[in-house]
């Protein structure tokens, strides 16, 4: 009996010794709910060259309801980028957002108010914000390296092309990558949802696509060794290369043309005409060339030519 | 040698009280002819002793488990507070880093020192947490890795910002992404797991089981007493009665103590423990709000449309969880925050940044510091009181455990002696 009692007692003591906890587990992140399919607001179309045609400033009012609205408010509200060096970026020293795209905004504000000082409100927006913010009136214009195409014309209006950019590739200096052919088996990053990766794969099918949220995030992957190159507009790449002495933009033909336009709400035709008139004034008085030389010419290494206007809407 | 029931009943009673003899029923008389009474007494003695010993062991084990549960509740409470402190400090460091980015390339030395101090404290707390709870170690190792990734991105953002290169903002955004997608899910899982453990342990008192164990033991003693009484014409066996009294007394005392501890735990859970958790939640949300406020200015022009709704979410958490004093400080900060938003929304971004980065008394940063300090003190004080409360009564519990063991042994001895007396009478 003593043995049995002893065994029982031992068992109970062992039971009392139990008290450990199960290991902590971090739950898997919940999958984001699938976004509802966007209503089909655009029709399929072909970029046959007519998409770059805008409104002729000589064939209509440049002082209609949209311009009057801005004038009454006292400031032009522009959607811009703050992280795209050379085009639209916040100067860490002064806190001022500056660049080629910002010069365009200031020129348009000066056309409306006589001077830009005190009449410009810059809103830093993402690429995805551009069209919705124009449509709901949050901003008057978008000057944020926005490519003109026929699909977007169905949603917003564009000025004449103010800069003819093109897709290129940034790689590490002295890595032996000098041509598109050398990109075979290399990891090339481009922002998710863009046509940049498709263009790369069309020209070099053996390239390995890597996507990230935006151009800067791709640059982080490149600098951390998680991508061998970044592919996007040459102006953006010039800005990224200017911040990294170990990066260079491949001297190749553009993989696809990216004509930049300043976008407005589709109804603001008078504002578009005013912008086109402003761009022509900048051509004549040299402000466009001066801005190009200040921001882009050095890093890009080629002289700039302001695109000729195309009208016909 | 085996004796039969036919032997004459003993004529002397050593310890039994003078109880009237009860004639055995006829059926029992017939059974008595074949019953092996000494052997039966042996069995009844084993049963009575076993009932007492088992009761003592079981009651002691239940009390040890309850005592341990209270100790673990205290440990888990401390771990909850520790993990929430890690979370709050990380978000505070994030708020400081984001705010510093607004100042420009040259980060203020005081802000840099505060960021470094927060991260150093976090890393020490992670080490303390790993030592305190082995079940958290694997996840805490992952947390260390995630924090390292976050601080690396912040350092890179700081380096680029100092060189006035805009790629710095991409690294800052990368750091914030790492914080939200990698770091905070881990700290939240740790806080949830330890809160669940603490709550489970708070319910570790077992008065009903003690009552049940006592009732079973008493039932066994009653049955034994009845069996003995049927054969010896004595209603009560003194030894068994003494054993039953001891078992009943121990049962009532331990059950009362367990119920008392249970009530205390419920009070602590609804009081100091909940206050500590709420204060830590308020502190975390307040620091998160400040980081969001700065981010709204870093991403100039998007503060109202993109970041203000996120700020409001955090403000709601603060209002739901902060204590009265912290809430007063918070409302003062809310006014300062509104001034920042008004300036930014009115197109005067420079004025908004000046307000957001000012550290003078009455500035948004200084007011948020007061919120942080108040909530931290509230969380720390209540957490310590809750842990102390769970551990209080431990000495009395240990004394009661010893008393239970001794009482059970004395009860077993008394029961054994009581039946032994009958056996000697029979012999």
> Which percent range fits the helix content of chain A?
25-40%
Taking Cα atoms only, what radius of gyration of chain A do you get, to the nearest Å?
A: 27 Å
Proportion in β-strands of chain A = 15-25%
CATH homologous superfamily label of the largest domain in chain A: Periplasmic binding protein-like II
Q: Give me the strand/helix succession of chain A.
A: HHEEEEHEHEHEEEHEHEHEEEHH
Q: Helical segment tally of chain B?
A: 12
CATH architectural category of the largest domain in chain A:
3-Layer(aba) Sandwich
What is the domain total for the residues of chain B?
1
What is the terminal separation of chain B in angstroms? Answer: 11 Å
Describe this structure as you would to a colleague:
- The complex is a heterodimer of chains A (313) and B (427).
- By secondary structure, chain A is an alpha/beta fold.
- Chain A folds into two domains: 50-162 and 261-300, D-Maltodextrin-Binding Protein, domain 2 (3-Layer(aba) Sandwich); 165-257, 3-Layer(aba) Sandwich (D-Maltodextrin-Binding Protein, domain 2).
- In chain A, 34% of the residues lie in helices and 18% in strands.
- Chain A has helices spanning 2-17, 65-73, 100-113, 130-135, 150-153, 196-203, 215-223, 234-242, 269-285, 287-300, and strands at residues 76-80, 83-84, 88-90, 97-98, 120-124, 141-142, 156-158, 163-172, 187-191, 208-212, 229-233, 247-249, 257-260, 263-265.
- In chain A, strands 8, 9, 10, 11, 12 and 13 form a six-stranded mixed sheet that branches.
- In chain A, helix 6 (196-203) links the parallel strand 9 and strand 10 (208-212).
- Chain A is globular, with a radius of gyration of 27 Å.
- The N and C termini of chain A lie far apart (106 Å).
- Chain B has 427 residues and is mostly helical.
- Chain B has one domain.
- Helices cover 84% and strands 0% of the residues of chain B.
- In chain B, helix 6 (207-232) runs antiparallel to helix 7 (238-298).
- The longest helix of chain B is centred in the first third of the chain and has 67 residues, at 37-103.
- The radius of gyration of chain B is 35 Å and the shape is rod-shaped.
- The interface between A and B is large, with 49 and 52 residues.
